[in-house]
Specification:
By secondary structure, the chain is mainly α. It is built from 14 helices and 2 strands.
Amino acid sequence: SQKFKRGKPGMFLTSVNKRMRDLYQGGDDVWKVYNFEFERNKLLSAYNGNIFKAARGVLGDERYTELARRAAEGSTDTNEALRRLATEALDQHSANIVKNTVPNYERVPEFIKGIRKLPVGNFIAFPAEILRTSANTFKQALDELASTNSEIQQIGLRRLMGFTTTTMVMPTAMQKMALDLTGTTQEQIDAIRENGASWEQNAILLPTSTKVGPGKNIITGYTNYSYTNPYGYLSKPARAILNAVSKGEDMGSDTGKIATDAVMGAVAEMFEPFAGESILTERLLDTTIRGGRTQ
């Protein structure tokens, strides 16, 4: 109530809540600043520390020529003016990479924020941000791979390989941590998977609750991490792009379309269970219209 909030306990809890939010936001900002400096230094290194060549590389010849024209018109010291504008261009480019490839819940669309209010939307912001940043990571990597600068190409290849590694390593690491925390074994999870539902035969299952049994803990609850992990749906397109690059195949000039198609394919696979018959409807049809035969 408002009376409680105005009282000393309420004011204390409000103060603690604000400090915790500030601490979380501060940690998030530090990570973004680190990523900004990392991206900026990678670009500078690719052009041997030459700020002018780096700016031309990120802007392209036409836009860099316009930048040089602005520098000549607006200052008596053309070289210093061009250096300042080139630095700003490089900073803006690096900031855009961070903005587009690092999850930021302030950029979650209002539509997604609305879904969070529904009973099924508790964690919708996380996969939404993963899908957004994944599409941008794909596009950024492909743009870098299309560069004529071999160092920039290497940045793109490392970016793509890093993303592919994340999609494959993270599920295994999460399962190992869950097994360690619950004192259970991989054999127990394998047994659950083999005797479970058909859609969980190849899934990553994480034990969530246990009870003490003879000689070992017995798993009493688990969650299907393969379904709730958006990275799982992106491993296939990531590997496909990486394989094409390793074979020297032409990915085409529309990197945005390639990235969008990859993520939209992941979205389609994610929502596939909701597009077909529901479990209840399927069972009713099996026992009535289909005469006891499953689809």
